[in-house]
Amino acid sequence: MIAGVLRPLLVLACAAAMVSAQVTSERILHANKEPQNWLTYGGGYASQRYSLLTQLNPTNAKDLKLKWVYRPKYMEKMEATPLVVDGVLYTVQNSEVAALDAATGRIFWTFHYAVPPESNQYVMVVKGLAIAGDTLFWATYDGHLIAIDAKAGTAIWNKKLVDWHQGYQLNVAPLVVKDKLILGPATNEEGANCWVAAYDIKTGNELWRFYTAPISDDDPVAKTWFGDSWKHGGSPIWVTGSYDPETNLTFWGTGNPNPGWNGDKRPGDDLYSDCVVALDADTGKLKWHYQFTPHDEYDWDSVQVPVLATIPWEGKPRKVVLWANRNGFFYVLDRISGKFLLGKAFVKQTWNVGFDEVGRPMKAPGIDPKPTNGMHVLPGTQGGTNWYSPSFSPNTGLFYVSSWENYDAPTSKGLIEVWRPGGKYSGNSRPPGAPRRPRGAGRGPSPAFRTEAEGYGAVKALDPSTGQQKWEFKMVDYTESGVLTTASDLLFSGGKEGNFFALNARDGALLWHTNLGGTVASGPVTYLANGRQYVVVCADNAMYAFGLPDGAD
Amino acid sequence: MVESLLGKRMACVLALAAAPLFAQSGDAAKGKAVVESSGCLRCHRIGENGSRTGPNLSEIGDKRSAEQLKTSITDPDAEVLAENRFVAVTLKDGSVVRGRILNHDAMSVQLIDGKQNLRSFLTANIRGYTILTKGLMPKPNLTDEQVADVVAYLSTLKGTEAP
After folding, report:
1. Checking CA distances to A284, which of A167, A198, A348, A452 falls within 20 to 30 Å?
2. Sequence-separated (6 or more) residues with CB below 8 Å from residue A37
3. Among A244, A111, A258, A148, which residue's Cα sits nearest to residue A193?
4. What is the pLDDT of residues A458-483, one digit of tens each?
5. How far is B119 from chain A (nearest CA, A)?
6. Which of A388, A324, A309, A303 is nearest to A81 (CA)?
């Protein structure tokens, strides 16, 4: 009893003694120097999701215990990566931002902004917040950017960036670079042309904009579409980019062109769909781009997190961007020039027969143009991976990615719809009179009965210098979980079957696991609270924190 | 909501309309007797009778056409539904536990064994397991007429729940 009373007092005392400074751009720049915190979506500008914390290690991971659970009030699956700043954890789900005590999960405040449910038409779930100074930033489904006082939980400003009735929505965690917030809108098969833009941290005023699909015939990029098909080219932004302070470049992945499943009206490369674009962070000017899937008809959004790393390359250290793409290939690109260095399949694939000398994929016969009514191609529609954050450990030198292996789902090609604002524009409509496809047709057996040959989820460890797989940790069901690695060579991840686990990052050996009863579809993060290391992950619509038992070292 | 209810009722009407067609080719009452005397219930459950080790046939007439039912009796391996698969779990001591697979994931596997016990194994505590997709049902020794009767009987087995 006495201990029970004393402990909260102690926690209070520690919390009061904690210095909570503003999150300056200097602090974000050197986020890796304060591993007790998690200051950006990707755990630092390089988006490596690698933590220098070592209290938890492969020896004591087996002792991990549940510390607290946070249940927001909405039923929606949580995909957001939380931020942790000096003992306070910030997260967002649906219409609510919350500030929690990172040690106990107790709520300091919640901030509510009612997002109209219709604006979240395709359930592209909010991925997280950004923080600068004492201000949190939240990009809402219905197109608003809201600045929130991180101490008080009140709105400072609220700016409408896009109109969701026009087929736009916002769901990325913004990226703070100096005095700017960088983000862009998404369109989910609604043909609204998207962009990456910078907004003033103080006011929300727009400072620059780079279109990922052209908005004028005069734009030379419009020629990579056909006729006026560029007008509804989509190319959304829905996962946060990275930033390289040395070159002042910010890197963003772009989504698929519209109409996504039928490219007949847009013969050409359809720039800048399915690309990584490297933009000057001050001006938004394009420095280079690389297109992973020219003229995509398979929904292979390139909305993965660009992972920046320095790796050995032909005997010398090289600054690169590492990228495991939805199209099933792992890429290494030169970070400064964008030069294609390597493209190697990390899952079974049937669409690509090789690359030319500049890294342009050569498509297999029968793949392009896509036959009407549909076909099988590996990886299937959901891809070899998707938006789930990978991790790079400078300690092991390995790149870790959540992947869908042997994954085959037929992809259809239908009629191109007449475009109207906010309407479906997917190129996947049923011709009049054609039979309705049976529900679930072509989807493989339920994971409960599935064999490995019919598809499985895995965390794969790749050697980035060769793309060679070092090991894989197999699950039965697929995975939408991000990956976290630590300097003590722990790896945390999970999957759709509800397991959350710790592996040895060197060999993939299972060290600890627990079942959280729902899909793990977020990136785990780690931090210190009261000097003790926590790991936090979301499963379904709840957040779980784990740590060593009280009293353990 | 209204649409989906309507859909179900439509399906029901269609099934009823189709039922007399099957009756012509076999005698359901005789089929019932064949099923009860041929050991089918050693593996299958129909209503309150039989074993839960194999697939439950209580509503099989809703799920499978007469043609499909005939094939699943005369050529059981022709099309085994994923939910009817079995699993063979090899324990650390080398012995094997077999049963119908209920679920599995990265850490464990669940099944119902021949004695109708629900069993769960941690993958860490076993040597391994194999999902079996063929060779699960012995081909019964029935005449063409008996097969037709059994198909007629199985076709009458429908869900009792109101649409």
Report:
1. A167
2. A31, A84, A85, A86, A527
3. A258
4. 999 999 999 999 999 999 999 999 99
5. 15
6. A388
ipTM score assigned to the predicted complex: 0.89
Q: Is residue B104 less than 8 Å (CB to CB) from chain A?
A: yes
* CATH number of the structural domain spanning residue B62: 1.10.760.10
- With CA atoms as reference, the chain B residue closest to A459 would be B106
Domain carrying residue B126: 86-132
Would you say residue A5 has pLDDT above 50? no
Cα→Cα distances A470→A456, A464, A489, B49, B159, Å: 18, 10, 15, 52, 51
Whether residue B15 is contained in a domain is answered as: yes
Quote the domain boundaries for residue A257.
2-416+462-542
CATH of the domain at A308: 2.140.10.10
Average pLDDT over chain A, rounded to whole?
93
Domain-located, residue A249: yes
In a domain, A429, yes or no: no
Q: Is A263 on the interface with B (CB under 8 A)?
A: no
Q: Give the separation between CA A259 and CA A413, rounded to whole angstroms.
A: 10
B63 touching A, CB under 8 A?
Answer: no
Residues B45 and B124 in one domain: no
Angle at A411 between CA A410 and CA A417, to 5 degrees: 150
- Nearest chain B residue to A477 by CA: give it: B105
Q: What is the pLDDT of residues A327-362, one digit of tens each?
A: 999 999 999 999 999 999 999 999 999 999 999 999
Give the number of other Cβ atoms within 10 Å of residue A7's Cβ: 12
The answer to whether B105 contacts A498, with C-beta atoms less than 8 Å apart, is yes
Beta-carbon separation of A449 and B106 below 8 A: no
* A513 contact B CB<8A: yes
The residues of A assigned a catalytic role are 299
Mutate to test the interface with B, among A405, A449, A454, A515 (most CBs of B within 10 A): A449
Closest CA to B54 of B133, B142, B114, B110: B114
CA dist., res. B52 & res. B44, Å (int): 6
Instruction: Please state the φ and ψ torsions of residue A412, each to the nearest 5 degrees.
Output: -100, 160
Q: For A106-115, A197-206, A434-443, which range has the lowest pLDDT when averaged over its residues?
A: A434-443
Asked whether the beta carbons of residue A510 and residue B103 sit closer than 8 angstroms, the reply is: no
Averaged pLDDT, A355-379: 93
Mean pLDDT of A231-239: 97
Domains identified in chain B, total number: 2
Each residue's pLDDT tens digit, A394-406: 999 999 999 999 9
Is the model's pLDDT at A6 over the cut of 50? no
Peptide bond into A272 cis (omega under 30): yes
Instruction: Give the DSSP letter of residue A219.
Output: S
